[in-house]
Design brief:
alpha/beta, Rossmann fold, 6-stranded mixed beta sheet, about 40% helix, about 20% strand, globular
Length: about 170
Amino acid sequence: MALEVLRCRECESIERELRAWLQGAKKLVIMGLGCSLRRDDFVGVQIVRGLRNRVSNRAHLIECETVPESFIEPVTELKPTHILIVDAALLNLPPGSSVLIEPSRAAETSISTHALPLSLLCEYLSHETGAKITLLAVQPKETGFGEGLSDELDEAHKSIIELLAYVLSEI
């Protein structure tokens, strides 16, 4: 029960933060990161996949997997006003918990399995696009080799998809 209460409060907080962050959004890029062979690390890509056909044409969904640097040019060509990066991160929270993190704080967390540090990616994208950037980080349970999300992350990613679809319906 306590975990459900935490997630509920967490969702309300993330919803408020997202709405404030999205003020003035004209074009949004959502980048999903993660490795399909590392269980819960794939949550960012799964969230982006779950948003397909659920967001307006002002939101562009990109499945970056473990190579977000390969999508720098397509992202900059879109000229977004906002970029949301969704990834697994070791946050020392219960599995499935999620937080919004400013790019400058990305180096403080252990995020995903990609080689390029997210703080560097964010800095470059910000410089090239002028977009506002934030990271939606999700605490994984299992990141060992294997496929499929753990039960906790499967439940959490569905909730995050619903939350994002709801919030993004207004841009």
